Amino acid sequence: MTTLLDIDQLRSFIAIAETGSFTKAAEVVNKTQSAVSMQMKRLEERLARPVFARDGRASKLTEDGQRLLDYARRIVKLNVETIAAFSDAELSGRVRLGVPDDYADRYLPEIMARFSRAYPGVELSVICEPSVDLLERIDANEIDLAIVTNCETKRAAETFRRERLLWVTSARHSTHTEERLPLALGRPTCSWRRIAVEKLESVRRPYRVIYSSSSAGAVAAAVLAGLSVSVLPESGLRPGMRVLTAAEGFPELPSCRIGLVRNAHESKSLADALAEHIVSSLDNLSEAQAAE
After folding, report:
1. What is the 3-state secondary structure (H, E, C) of the chain?
2. Which pTM was predicted?
3. What homologous superfamily is domain 93-153+257-291 in, according to CATH?
4. Residue 57: predicted pLDDT
């Protein structure tokens, strides 16, 4: 008889694969590290092969683990959709979502439309702030779920999308050729700002920050007006912008992870339902972009 896989074990497996750590994965799935370790032991016993290979303190996937990851994501996603489809109790109440405004214009319409159709009895409250502020709101129990951008793994988050970070300038201006490069960046706490500055300093490119704002719209406006160069994710590109390349003297930037951070102290039902719709909405956007 075929041995069935445990959904809860697969959720923990996905969390480990995405965070690279049993400890951080335990935070994501709200379990102890020992419980997660036991789950992975049982999962490997079911599969009769290892899915993780230790690399120092990090936990990397074996070749079989990489194969399992795609199946695990599909199985967990289908399980959530199935439970929602056959649930007799209609969800109600309020769920609080935090989103950086870099992604609000691009992602929120699809997320809100899908969620509202599925759960008309739920009030969705949205706050648009930088990721660092949203993490503080999670800790202060002011929001239930946050979409955050993170180029470095400093916080346990469920990564659901990766995007390239890009140097951008106005397509109608030659601002990027100025001897002392004018920049429009986020606030000093912004990780993208720090990365941009470090990269320019690594190639000894003179620069000056002339616009600083937590508003993605304000930064984009400075770029489109030909006043400055900036750093944006792929989805943040707007008509009238041009991507700058290494051939033009702009060093390659790291990719950016987009993930979900949950409030562990609040009810999971509404947050889980919203999280599923966020991931589904982003999948739909990716498919639409590929079709284009």
Report:
1. CCCCCCHHHHHHHHHHHHHCCHHHHHHHHCCCHHHHHHHHHHHHHHHCCCCEEEECCEEEECHHHHHHHHHHHHHHHHHHHHHHHCCCCCCCEEEEEEECHHHHHHHHHHHHHHHHHHCCCEEEEEEECCHHHHHHHHHCCCCCEEEEEECCCCCCCEEEEEEEEEEEEECCCCHHHCCCEEEEECCCCCHHHHHHHHHHHHCCCCEEEEEECCCHHHHHHHHHCCCCEEEEEHHHCCCCEEEECHHHCCCCCCEEEEEEEECCCCCHHHHHHHHHHHHHHHHHHHHHHHHC
2. 0.65
3. Periplasmic binding protein-like II (3.40.190.10)
4. 60
